[in-house]
Design a protein that fits this description.
single chain, alpha/beta, nine-stranded mixed β-sheet, 8 helices, about 20% helix, globular
Amino acid sequence: MNIQATNRLTPAETALVDAYTAKFSELPGDGAVVAARDVLFDDLKTGGLPTRRIEAWHYTDLKSLLRTVPEDRPAPVIEKAASIIAGSPVAYMLHGTADIGKVDGVSRFADSLLDGSAAAGLAEASKDDTIGRINGSFVRDGLVVEIPADAELDKPIELQAIHGAGQVHSRFPVRFGKGSKATVIERHLSVTPDAALVSSVSDIVVEDGAEATWILLQQQGAADIHLGQLRIKLGAEAKLRLFVINAGGKLVRQELRIDVEGEGTDLIVRGVNLLGGETHTDVTMVLGHNVPNTTSTEVFRNVVFDRAKGIFQGMIRVAPDAQKTDAKMACNTLLMSDDGEFSAKPELEIFADDVQCGHGATVADISDNHLYYLMARGVPRAKARAMLVNAFVAEIVEELEEENLVEALETIISGWLEHHA
């Protein structure tokens, strides 16, 4: 393994090189996986952490923002959290190690590393895929989920990634078989106030005719770095409802890389970003409509308190053959502090001529008229503001329609808003 001299590397880059050198021999994998890891890490060393000069990272200069990397520590004793939905099957990642319990259709990703079947999936998704490079270099384990064809699950499967301080890298390959119908909740939790570097990649395939709901709930600690990525491929007549909720973390980059590859696909993406303290949270989406006759809607709602900084970058690309595409995207933000910031960059690249595509973004404070309406009816100002913020966000969650899911997520969101408001 050829390790470059580190005299030009930042402290964070040096720490990553040192960690890889120290742990390389312990990482699971056959020859193909070892080769894949070496390629990924060599690309990471050669390119370094991304700066604002790379367009996709323009608002999140990781080389400057990631000043240090927490030391890799032994796994602490971690208590499992209760499932969001009572009675739902739960598989766990406990500080980077899988505990699948008795959940049907779930296996350990470490087994795929050991037999080499995971090697091809470790490849980076693009030339600027820093998250994929870090995760693929260091990942030890994860949870593999297979929903059988035509299966219909009556309760969600919850994948809980719980960690302490240090470094944790997890992978979640998930396949929704043809004609299946299921909900998966991917939840990230911290159990310590000390900082952690967490990377997570979910490879999601929704096969022809499947109906899938994926809920990503990120509740990292106030000192944590969370580098997450969803890689999604949709087959013909597939339906996917994707809900992303960010409610934690010090430095967060959440990437959504979605490819619509089958005709008749219906995609719904909804996002809620709850930003407080001094968090820097970046949600970057690249959605490719690659075939004709597909639809998608993307709506993100953001609430910014304190000195938090948020970013939404949303790119919709319509391929030349993707006629009859109907794609719409919106990003709406409430700025609750004069010191908070939010940057929105919605984009369209359209190479077909028979499409309906649009995007928009708004940034505002609470409406004075709405606030006056509530206060005139005896509601105290602080409570009135909290009610309006909650309504702004709850409108997105209520689109889930499943009462138990809506209630569980609204409880989490209300708790966060109560604490920060």
